[in-house]
């Protein structure tokens, strides 16, 4: 019958997955694990904006000045940088995936995973007309965001070249994670010592990192190359260690804007640089090339474990070398 309102099949919520509205009415998905951990992701940018442990503590940094208004990307959480990291190409900074409205993928191809997580959502992005003008490639980008039984946050990207005329394409990529920290002066990063890096503050010149954990006293913007699958971010004050586990992502960007750049960013509080650190699992030095039909998978697994040197509960080296 004409005029009948078309029924949209709103996805059905469950105790583990709730579809709701967030800031400025943007569609948001809430993931909840049975022991109390939770995460939030906006369909805009497929952007994780919150990840809380089972005590309800927020583990990701989200700027108090974040603008939830397209085309601006949300400042904080885990922006998706695809199909271009930074200014390494002809597209806008970090590509367009973080500035697009993704949709729920209600019929994803089978997902080879060993997690029993019920708290997950599958999102999908395909190129718009506009995107195809600037980046003339056919792709399907499927992203699964899941909370593991222990509250770990897992992001799995599957990007397939769906081009039918035989054209391959290449891209660079990052999960641009903003970790919430007590104070940058209390933070050290283990796992990147002695590695080579490109310094974005020195014309991307290549250097070799010194031999012990990274500490922070000024602006840092470094692309570490061929990094281990595990990196530890130790917050001494909070007695908490973030463990970044990554697969298919050989590089890692470490970024803190510090005071001058913080003041220059309208969507970032002047003092917020003290309470965040970006450690971004990435594929930058060697762009990923896909032939038609080929699929790339990039996995990020974040966990937050109690760590206190005095109690000897956690030795970062054990975490890095352990399972
Ligand atoms: O402001 P954005 O476009 O989100 O970029 C924020 C930052 O992202 C990455 O960390 C880059 O290495 C930095 O050079 C850039 O400033």
TrEMBL record:
Record's catalysed reaction(s): alpha-D-glucose 6-phosphate = beta-D-glucose 6-phosphate
Top-level lineage group: Eukaryota
Amino-acid positions noted as binding substrate in the UniProt annotation, renumbered to this chain: 75, 93, 98
Entry keyword annotation includes Isomerase: yes
Enzyme Commission no: 5.1.3.15
A GO CC term assigned to this protein in UniProt: cytoplasm
Gene3D superfamilies for this protein: 2.70.98.10
InterPro entries listed in its UniProt record: Aldose_1/G6P_1-epimerase, G6P_1-epimerase, Gal_mutarotase_sf_dom, GH-type_carb-bd
GO MF terms, alphabetically ordered: carbohydrate binding; glucose-6-phosphate 1-epimerase activity
Active site: 176, 280
UniProt GO BP: carbohydrate metabolic process
Keywords, in A-Z order: Isomerase
PANTHER family registered for this protein in UniProt: APOSPORY-ASSOCIATED PROTEIN C-RELATED, GLUCOSE-6-PHOSPHATE 1-EPIMERASE
Family recorded in the similarity comment: Belongs to the glucose-6-phosphate 1-epimerase family.
Protein name: glucose-6-phosphate 1-epimerase
Organism whose genome encodes this protein: Phaseolus vulgaris (Kidney bean)
């Amino acid at each position: 019958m004409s005029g009948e309102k078309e029924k949209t099949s709103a996805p059905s919520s469950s105790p583990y997955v709730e579809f709701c509205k967030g800031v400025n009415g943007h569609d948001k998905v809430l993931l909840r694990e049975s022991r109390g951990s939770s995460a939030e992701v906006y369909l805009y940018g497929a952007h994780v904006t919150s990840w809380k442990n089972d005590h309800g503590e927020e583990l990701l940094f989200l700027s108090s000045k974040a603008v939830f208004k397209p085309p601006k990307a949300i400042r904080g959480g885990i922006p998706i940088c695809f199909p271009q990291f930074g200014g390494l190409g002809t597209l806008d900074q970090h590509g367009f995936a973080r500035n697009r409205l993704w949709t729920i993928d209600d019929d994803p191809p089978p997902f080879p995973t060993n997690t029993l997580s019920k708290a997950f959502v599958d999102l999908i992005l395909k190129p718009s007309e506009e995107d195809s003008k600037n980046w003339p490639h056919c792709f399907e980008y499927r992203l699964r965001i899941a909370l593991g039984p222990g509250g770990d946050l897992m992001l799995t990207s599957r990007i397939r070249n769906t081009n039918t005329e035989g054209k391959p394409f290449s891209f660079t990529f990052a999960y641009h994670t903003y970790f919430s920290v007590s104070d940058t002066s209390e933070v050290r990063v283990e796992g990147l010592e002695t590695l080579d890096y490109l310094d974005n503050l020195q014309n991307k010149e290549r250097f070799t990192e010194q031999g012990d954990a990274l500490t922070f006293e000024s602006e840092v913007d470094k692309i570490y190359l061929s990094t281990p699958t595990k990196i530890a971010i130790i917050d001494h004050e909070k007695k908490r260690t973030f463990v970044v586990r990554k697969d298919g992502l050989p590089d890692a960007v470490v970024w803190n804007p510090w005071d001058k750049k913080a003041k220059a960013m309208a969507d970032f509080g002047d003092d917020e640089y003290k309470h965040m650190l970006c450690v971004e699992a990435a594929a930058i030095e060697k762009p990923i090339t896909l032939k038609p039909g080929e699929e790339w998978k990039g996995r990020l697994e974040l966990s937050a474990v109690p760590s206190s040197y005095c109690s000897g509960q956690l030795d970062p080296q054990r975490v890095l070398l352990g399972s």
